[in-house]
From TrEMBL:
InterPro entries: Prenyl_trans_a, RabGGT_asu_insert-dom_sf, RabGGT_asu_insert-domain
Protein name per the record: Geranylgeranyl transferase type-2 subunit alpha
Domain named Rab geranylgeranyltransferase alpha subunit insert-domain: residues: 190-243
A GO molecular-function descriptor: zinc ion binding
Annotated stretches, region: Disordered: 121-146
Function: Catalyzes the transfer of a geranyl-geranyl moiety from geranyl-geranyl pyrophosphate to cysteines occuring in specific C-terminal amino acid sequences.
EC number: 2.5.1.60
């Protein structure tokens, strides 16, 4: 910081570029070094002419070696924010990582922060995505808790179900699925139905605990309403996410 006050811009640029090279050698020794990533963020923020594309490339290389390096993920989010990377570009990045490894929990989580920005629910009916003309570049990714439009939710359900079929025991996709259930526009949304013909039983899962009687849950088979007795997953629970 002292050298910044006595050197011109080009000299400061070279000093910090040398620091970045030093940090890169440190990360090759320990790619999960908190201090190295934190200092790299500090240096990048002070560079007179930062090369954000190079920093994103570095993150890509590190995540290709270990997709759960959360220090690198934190640094990548900083780079994305500082450089103004479009949200759709980052969502495509998660597509690539998830496509190569469904067990990439960090990518699923990052995806959950991007979807509400890129595909928010429409403020007016009908439910499919409402896209207004953009007069400015899309915002950089930040964490939001807004709901996601139904059209995109259906696509996400299909994506995460592919992950289930690939590896039913991997928890990453199930965590993401649970998050999806809370993004629906409707208050009570049926997320899945399981039918057992042998036991003559139907299991219905909702996005949040409900009372099957109060919501008027009705089973229709071949167009005919059926007489059924709905039971919660626990006999003492009047409200349950599964009936």
């Amino acid at each position: 910081m002292h050298l910044e006050t006595v050197k011109d811009e080009d000299e400061v640029q070279k000093i910090y570029e040398g620091e970045l090279s030093f940090l890169e050698s440190c990360l090759k020794v320990n790619p999960k070094s908190y201090g190295s990533w934190h200092h790299r963020g500090w240096v990048s923020a002070r560079l007179p002419r930062p090369d954000w594309a190079r920093e994103l490339s570095l993150c890509d290389r590190c995540l290709s070696l270990d997709d759960r390096n959360f220090h690198c993920w934190d640094y990548r989010r900083m780079v994305v924010k500082m450089s103004g990377v479009p949200v759709d570009q980052e969502l495509a990045f998660t597509d690539r990582l998830i496509g190569s490894n469904f067990s990439n929990y960090s990518s699923w989580h990052y995806r959950s922060t991007l979807l509400p920005l890129l595909h928010p629910e429409s403020p007016e009916p009908p439910s499919p995505c409402h896209k207004s003309p953009q007069t400015s570049p899309p915002p950089s990714p930040q964490t939001h808790s807004h709901r996601v439009c139904e059209e995109q939710l259906l696509k996400e359900y299909e994506l995460v179900q592919n992950a289930f079929f690939t590896d039913p025991n991997d928890q990453s996709a199930w965590f993401y699925y649970r998050w999806l259930l809370g993004r629906a526009e409707r208050e009570e949304m049926i997320s899945c139905v399981y039918v057992s013909r042998d036991e003559e039983r139907v299991a219905v899962a909702f996005s949040r605990p409900v009372n099957a009687q109060s919501v008027g849950l009705l089973l229709v088979l071949d167009g005919q309403p059926q007489r059924v007795e709905w039971r919660s997953v626990h006999p003492r629970f009047k409200h349950s996410p599964v009936w």
